[in-house]
Automatic annotation (TrEMBL):
Residues 13-24 have a biased composition (Basic and acidic residues). Keywords: Cytoplasm, GTPase activation. This is RAB3 GTPase activating protein subunit 2 (non-catalytic). The gene is RAB3GAP2. Residues 687-1256 form the Rab3GAP regulatory subunit C-terminal domain. Belongs to the Rab3-GAP regulatory subunit family. The lineage of its organism: Eukaryota, Metazoa, Chordata, Craniata, Vertebrata. One of its GO terms (molecular function) is GTPase activator activity. It comes from Oreochromis niloticus (Nile tilapia).
């Protein structure tokens, strides 16, 4: 660079650069900020004027603002601290112009505040524990040093760590609403008054040092003269270095024990501040932006400030016109870099107290240090491997005026790197590691490297500086530096023709090996270039003396050359255009056409339902060529000169198999030549077989397009691989299992590609049979264990193909859907005896097939009603309906075909039990979907075996139902009525409507359980079995098996719970106010929610009349609610089967009345009156026939009749004499009690006629009824 503009003379005072007066509007605002970075580089604190921001790194490595704070600050510092060897949390230390030092968490919570000196805080420096690299080095303790204009405070790191941890625990307890106040231990600190220096702007605490005997005697003679006495052991001293003016650099030494540590009172943050808004910048919750009244109170109670202990300067570097600006201590505590206002950077030797190097032309420079350990790989084999690792020290200098970042080797080394960066960046160097570490906790733990980062405010990028160790060895004669330069040059010239000469010019074997590996892994290098370079290097090594050749490099060259030759040969065989395939008699597969035609329909349906290809990248296509670099990365040569395939990811394995065998499978390559080439290369036939099967199974879609042709090619490849040496053992006994054929069988068993696996099994079965026949001595057909295994495998694969075809059927529009289940023989066997039924039940759920429809399919009944409706629609709708019906029929055919293949595993009871369990599991995941639980109960009703029914009911109740059922009961007991939606969601986990449906399903479930328990004694338990081909299933038991293992239930206890469920369902349906437990006595309450298989003490005998009265009132309200729900007298439509308008509610109330000892006749009379009051006279007449006490009913209906007539007469326009007499008779009956008073007179006349029929003649109100009848007839006649 041209330095004439920014370099100035050292001697002349007038040559000192003046401060720039140019407009700074274009400079970034970050230049005016104080910036500090944590040592782990994951928390950045930026402060400017009266604001600060804490920036943390998220998982995606972006910065985001956590909290914005108001501060009056001069500097910030952050450091990590850990008690377990890992970073636990980050503490932010803030110095204020008032002299206060406050400590915050990374989220801005104040931990403690200290006033140690009443001057502005200038700098904060931290020193953490360093593992000594050499014996005899003094162990340095942790310390936080705070610099003031004329004083310095050092806080012991252990004391600070304990205090901050105690404060953080107290804040956590306060946040949890705890009021337990724990006084943390006080801080131990030392306060020094730095004397004999005009101004101090920065400092460094070097640590404890001990002089050698010579230096001790020298200092004693200089200070005390010829007769000075010398102590026997040199004292330990703490060294402090300051920069500023008068002198330019000062060295202070504090002898240990000369000043006793001071104890401070810890001012903890008030826990109540946690309740304030965390992200509010204006609230002043950190104590930085308080008003005057809030500031006056602390000022009245200022903590006591201890006086400083005077500390005289030992010596310094005097320069009256030079003013130091900053000092940066090296990680080894032996060197320090100092910047000044003359634009110089001075390197200090702290042990000798002298300047040993100076750079000029670095005005406003920012410094950092990087200590790099030597790589282990080069010294592990050396005799000095047990010695400590060497470290290289580099000084980082950022010159913002020039916009460059330089790296200098220490102490007198050259500049090893320079980077052009922006002119407004900030160099961030923490200079410390984690706090809370000592010699015990650091054992076996790798301390992180101190990082040097560069923050660019223009782009927002935060870059780290990384320096390799070997740059410390760089000079003009260093062969390694030259080799590394050639490696860099090689990486830039990989596409050119100069790479061969560059690679041969490298001298160092390790670097040459690194360059060759880099060349072989480069994707842009042509294969021919790789072959030529590798062969040239191999020839060069072979021409050298054996003692001078590196064995590892020679082995790498020969192995990579062999692999490149193999890649080229295979590529040439696949690209041959003159190859023609003529099938011979040996290649024919006898009888394979029959088997293919047998499974062809299933294969076609399977191919139809396989997922369509999705969007993918071109380089991920299986037809894309395999680069040579990928080929080399997956193969390696062994010491036996064989080639071993390295299995990494499934994708890479498939790509390699596709490169080797796909052209052979398509009949485009000479497969015998390919197999011979691979055999000559030394690849084991077992790995080749695995690669062949991988590509066959992976490219299932292409295989199914031409199955016959591809099957023949697969057979020829299998035979060719089987004939290789080491494939089928020569000593193999055909009566035993062959490892070669077992490998194919294992791959097919584990494969999820059912169609390709089945075809591979059919081909391999033929090949194995031919191999066994050729080994047999006789002409009889050989029967062996190997062939029996293949028969079972083929049968299982056919079953899996049909099952997988069914599972691939897409769900109808609007169904729940979900991911398609991929099955294999292995997964089905591991799924246990119920694995097949479990897969089908999940498919039933995805298809949204109703229980009734599933029952029809299993009974082979079609939906004739749908066909009848199709004929009545127009042409377009009929076409869509026929298509939908055709798809439905195909689905039913697939399910029936599957059930025929699994007559035991998919028996109706087996399947319905698993469907029941699948739906209740899905309901438990989303209780709002009440339809799932309803269909679960419906599936359970379809089970014909009472033993399975009872067991499944018991498991459903104990696993999913009883917990929510008890929560619903206690919730209604608490609120005394039907709870609102919010309460239901909070306590039961579902809304009020879903809870009503849930209680109704509970009633049905308990009724099924009671019916099953009653029928268990009459029917024997079913015997569960499984198909012979699947008898090896190992895994969890099926739902049916688990159901049969359940204990019997106690019928009265089940009935007791069913009674409670019915009452809760009625209360929720009709919003009746009731506390459920108030309807039962103490015995009944205690029996609830017990295990249904246990015998409990149940209520017996006559109930208390008061309790019976409460039960009666509840049932009467339920009947009233039902009548109000069906309030449409003119509607002739039948009532629904569920909900509040269901037909069965009155009969349920009568049944509950008999269980609750309530007189059913009272319920009937109440129902008759309610129906007449609602205007439902026909329904009332039906119920009236069952009433026993006609006299009481007649009296009640007489009052109701009077209310009807009262309304009719008051609203009638024809006020005749008869009407007036009748009005005087019924004046006392007010019609407001009627819910439907507007009733035609003929209906009222019919009601009076019914009254005359049921009232006896000697009844007291019989004559009144006759008068009413006469009057109504007169009114009817007049109308």
């Amino acid at each position: 660079w041209d330095t004439s503009d920014w370099e100035s003379a050292w001697e002349g005072g007038d040559n000192k650069e003046e401060e720039s007066t140019s407009d700074k509007k274009g400079e970034p605002w970050l230049q005016d900020c104080v910036v500090s970075l944590s040592p782990c580089a994951d928390l950045l604190v930026v402060a400017r004027e009266q604001k600060a921001a804490f920036l943390s790194v998220c998982e995606q490595h972006h910065l985001y603002s956590l909290v914005l704070l108001c501060i009056f600050t001069s500097c910030l510092n952050t450091f990590f601290r850990s008690s377990t060897g890992r970073p636990d949390w980050t503490c932010v230390v803030v110095g204020f112009t008032s002299g206060y030092v406050r400590f915050y968490t990374e989220s801005g919570v104040l931990l403690l505040a200290q006033l140690l000196h009443e001057d502005p805080v200038l700098r904060l420096k931290c020193r953490t524990y360093e593992i000594p690299r050499h014996p005899g080095v003094t162990e340095q303790h942790e310390e936080l040093s705070i610099l003031y204009p004329a004083a310095m405070v050092t806080i012991d790191g252990f004391s600070l760590f304990q205090s901050l941890r105690a404060c953080r625990n107290q804040v956590a307890r306060a946040a949890a609403a705890g009021n337990d106040v724990i006084q943390p231990p006080p801080l131990a600190y030392k306060k020094w008054g730095l004397q004999e220096m005009d101004t101090i702007v920065d400092h460094s605490s070097v640590g404890i040092m001990t002089l050698c005997v010579f230096d001790q005697m020298k200092n004693a003679s200089i200070l005390g003269g010829f007769n000075a006495s010398v102590k026997g052991s040199p004292p330990a001293m703490s060294q402090y270095v300051t920069v500023g003016s008068g002198p330019y650099t000062g060295f202070y030494y504090a002898i240990e024990g000369s000043s006793q540590p001071l104890l401070s009172h810890v001012a903890m943050a008030v826990a109540s501040k946690l309740t304030s808004a965390l992200f509010s910048a204006a609230s002043g919750w950190l104590g930085w932006n308080k008003n005057k009244n809030e500031e006056e109170a602390p000022q009245k109670q200022k903590p006591k400030v201890e006086p400083a202990t005077p500390l005289s300067i030992r010596f310094g570097l005097p320069d009256s016109r030079r003013h130091g600006e900053s000092i940066c201590l090296s990680p080894c505590n032996t060197l320090a870099g100092v910047t000044d206002d003359f634009g110089r950077v001075t390197l200090l030797d702290l042990a000798r107290g002298i300047a040993i190097r100076m750079w000029k032309g670095y005005r406003d420079a920012q410094l950092g240090w990087l200590q790099v350990p030597e790589e282990r790989s080069e010294r592990d084999l050396s005799p000095s491997a047990s010695l400590p690792r060497r470290h290289a020290l580099f000084l980082i200098i950022y010159a913002p005026r020039r916009g460059i970042l330089e790296v200098w080797a220490m102490q007198q080394g050259p500049r090893v790197g320079a980077f052009t960066v922006g002119k407004h960046c900030r160099l961030l160097y923490a200079g410390y590691r984690l706090m809370g570490v000592n010699s015990v906790t650091s054992q076996g733990w790798q301390l992180h490297t101190q990082q040097v980062c560069l923050l660019d405010p223009i782009t927002g990028a935060l870059r780290t500086v990384n320096i390799p160790f070997h740059l410390a060895l760089s000079d003009k004669k260093s062969e390694r530096a030259k080799d590394m330069h050639l490696v860099k040059k090689l990486t830039t010239l990989l596409r050119s023709r100069d790479t061969e000469s560059i690679l041969l010019d490298i001298k160092h074997p390790a670097v040459k090996k690194q360059a060759l590996e880099s060349l072989l892994s480069n994707k842009n290098t042509p294969v021919s270039c790789l072959v030529n370079i590798t062969r040239a290097l191999d020839d060069t090594l072979k021409r050298q003396e054996p003692e001078e050749v590196d064995a590892g490099l020679l082995q790498l060259c020969s192995s990579q050359l062999k692999l490149l030759q193999l890649y080229t040969d295979i590529q040439q065989l696949h690209s041959a255009t003159d190859y023609l395939f003529f099938p011979s008699l040996q290649d024919s597969l006898e009888g394979i056409e029959e088997e293919l035609s047998r499974v062809a329909p299933t294969l076609q349906r399977y191919a139809q339902f396989t997922p369509r290809p999705s969007v993918s990248f071109a380089q991920d296509s299986p037809d894309s060529p395999l680069p040579a670099q990928a080929f080399l990365s997956q193969l390696e040569c062994t010491e036996d000169e064989e080639v071993k395939v390295i299995r990494r990811s499934e994708t890479e394995w498939n790509q390699l198999g596709n490169f080797l065998f796909w052209s052979c499978l398509c009949g485009k390559s000479p497969l015998h030549k390919v197999c011979y080439t691979l055999q000559q290369a030394g690849i084991s036939p077992q790995q080749l077989l695995s690669l062949l099967l991988s590509v066959w199974l992976h490219r299932e879609k292409e295989v199914l397009q031409k199955p016959e042709e591809n099957v023949r090619n697969l057979h020829r490849l299998l035979v060719a691989l089987s004939n290789m040496k080491g494939a089928v053992e020569e000593s193999w006994d055909p009566q035993s299992i062959s490892p070669w054929w077992q490998q194919v069988r294992t791959t097919c068993v584990q494969s999820h590609n059912a169609a390709a696996a089945l075809l591979a099994a059919l081909v391999t079965h033929r090949a194995a049979k031919a191999s066994i026949t050729s080994r047999a001595d006789s002409k009889w057909e050989a029967v062996s264990l190997e062939l029996e295994q293949w028969v079972v495998c083929v049968r299982q694969l056919e079953d899996v193909l049909v099952l997988q075809t069914l599972l691939l059927v897409p769900p109808p529009p609007g169904a729940t859907g979900g991911a398609t289940v991929q099955c294999s023989i292995k997964t089905l066997l591991e799924g246990g005896t119920g694995g097949i039924a479990d897969s089908v039940s999940k498919w039933v759920f995805r298809q949204d097939i109703s229980p009734e429809r599933l029952k029809e399919i299993l009974q082979k009944r079609g939906n004739k009603e749908a066909d009848d409706n199709v004929e009545q629609r127009d042409e377009e709708e009929r076409h869509e309906k026929e298509k939908s019906q055709e798809d439905t029929d195909r689905t039913a055919e697939l399910l029936l075909a599957l059930c025929q293949r699994f007559p035991h595993s998919l028996s109706p009871d087996f399947l319905f039990a698993h469907c029941c369990w699948e739906y209740v599991v899905q309901w438990n995941k989303d209780p709002e979907e009440g339809q799932y639980l309803c269909w679960s109960v419906e599936h359970l009703k379809m089970v014909s075996s009472p033993h399975i029914q009872q067991g499944v009911c018991t498991m459903m109740w104990s696993t999913f139902i009883v917990k929510r059922f008890s929560a619903a009961t206690f919730l209604m007991e608490k609120v005394g009525k039907a709870p609102k939606d919010r309460l239901c969601r909070r306590d039961v986990g579902m809304g009020d409507k879903a809870m009503t449906s849930f209680l109704g399903c509970c009633v049905q479930l308990l009724n099924i359980l009671m019916e099953a328990d009653s029928a268990v004694e009459e029917v024997s338990a079913p015997e569960l079995s499984i198909e012979e081909a699947w008898s090896g299933a190992e895994g969890p038991a099926s739902i049916a098996e688990l159901a049969l293992e359940q204990k019997g239930v106690h019928y009265p206890l089940v009935q007791h719970h069913c009674l409670l469920a019915s009452l809760l369902h009625a209360a929720m349906t009709f919003s009746v106010k009731v506390k459920p437990f108030s309807l039962f006595d103490s015995k009944g309450k205690n029996a609830f929610f017990r295990d249904l298989t246990t015998i409990q003490l149940m209520p017996s005998g006559d109930m208390d009349p008061g309790l019976v009265s409460v039960r009666q009132e509840f049932l009467l309200r339920v009947l009233t609610g039902w009548v109000q729900a069906i309030d449409d007298p003119s509607s002739s439509t039948p009532l629904p089967s569920s909900g509040p308008r269901a037909e069965w509610w009155p009969s349920l109330c009568l049944e509950l009345g008999s269980l609750l000892q309530v007189n059913p006749d009272i319920l009937r009379r109440h129902l008759v009156c309610e129906l007449y009051s609602q205007g439902l006279d026909l329904r009332a007449e039906e119920v009236m026939l069952e009433v026993e006490d006609k006299d009481v009913l007649g009296s009640q209906l007489l009052v109701l009749t009077g209310q009807r007539l009262s309304y009719s007469l008051l609203h009638s326009q024809n006020q005749t004499q008869a009407a007036m007499e009748l009005l005087a008779m019924v004046r006392s009956q007010h019609y407001s009690l009627l819910r439907c008073p507007l009733i035609p007179l003929p209906q009222t006349s019919r009601l009076v006629g019914r009254l005359i029929e049921i009232l006896p003649e000697n009844h007291a109100q019989y004559s009144l009824a006759l008068h009413l009848l006469e009057a109504v007839e007169v009114l009817t006649t007049e109308d």
